[in-house]
Write a structure and sequence with these properties.
The complex is a heterodimer of chains A (about 120) and B (about 110).
Chain A: E1 5-7, E2 10-13, E3 19-24, E4 31-37, E5 43-50, E6 53-56, E7 65-68, E8 75-79, E9 88-95, E10 106-107, E11 111-115
Chain B: E1 5-7, E2 10-14, E3 19-24, E4 31-37, E5 43-50, E6 55-58, E7 61-66, E8 71-76, E9 85-95, E10 98-103, E11 107-112
Parallel strand pairs in B: 2-11
Antiparallel strand pairs in B: 1-3, 3-8, 4-5, 4-9, 6-7, 7-8, 9-10, 9-11
């Protein structure tokens, strides 16, 4: 059973470009979470999604950031018009069907975004 | 302090010694979880303790939870060089109608061979 997969592992963008980060949850998991980690910091919750639904996006900036988890395919975190402050590691986690934090979240290896 | 704050921020010990890390939090929790992160890698879930539990064991790990003091400790016994990593506590809370994990800043453990 493959773990949570994220790609790309490293992404370099120039200011103003778009960044697309992909996350494939573990098989059988229908809940996906995105977190952002700045250097020397803990993870900050961004958004919680189930298939085709955004459950909680309270941690996501209102502008330039969006997330989706379509019926088919991976979850996508999209950052438009990136700025240097978006440089960070972005982690995706998934949990089983009963979801919520009472279930363990399994983390992917992360995507390290560098904005030049 | 923020929700989920680890103490100390860094710890250096010799192989074979025990390592104790503490976590304090502010609001009521559903559970508390500990994660490990090796440099440049993703997080690995270590152990989850629910709010109605006081102690839990998993291999060389022992976690305690004191909800009256809003604190938890993670004990790693007989440490190994491979235990060198950053350790994070994360509190499972209900906020705004949904459940989420709130992470501390983490603490760096160095186990010297």
């Amino acid at each position: 059973n493959a773990g949570v997969m994220q790609n790309p592992r490293h992404l370099v963008r120039r200011r103003g470009q778009e960044a697309r980060l992909r996350c494939s949850p573990m098989k059988g998991h229908s809940h996906v979470y995105w977190y952002r980690q700045l250097p020397e910091e803990g993870l900050k919750f961004m958004v919680y999604l189930q298939k085709e639904n955004i459950i909680d996006e309270s941690g996501m900036p209102k502008e330039r950031f969006s997330a989706e988890f379509p019926k088919e395919g991976p979850s996508i975190l999209r950052i438009q018009q990136v700025v240097r402050g978006d440089s960070a590691a972005y982690f995706c986690a998934s949990s089983p069907i009963f979801g919520g934090i009472q279930e363990t979240q399994y983390f992917g290896p992360g995507t390290r975004l560098l904005v030049l | 302090s923020q929700q989920g704050e680890e103490d100390p921020q860094a710890l250096s010990i010799q192989e074979g010694e025990n390592a104790t890390m503490n976590c304090s939090y502010k609001t009521s929790i559903n559970n508390l979880q500990w994660y490990r992160q090796n440099s440049g890698r993703g997080l690995v879930h270590l152990i989850l303790i629910r709010s109605n539990e006081r102690e839990k064991h998993s291999g060389r790990l022992r976690v305690t939870l004191d909800t009256s003091k809003k604190s938890s400790s993670l004990l790693i016994t007989a440490s190994r060089a491979a235990d060198t990593a950053s350790y994070f506590c994360a509190t499972g809370i209900t906020q705004g109608g949904s459940e989420k994990l709130v992470f501390g800043k983490g603490m760096k453990l160095t186990v010297n061979p």
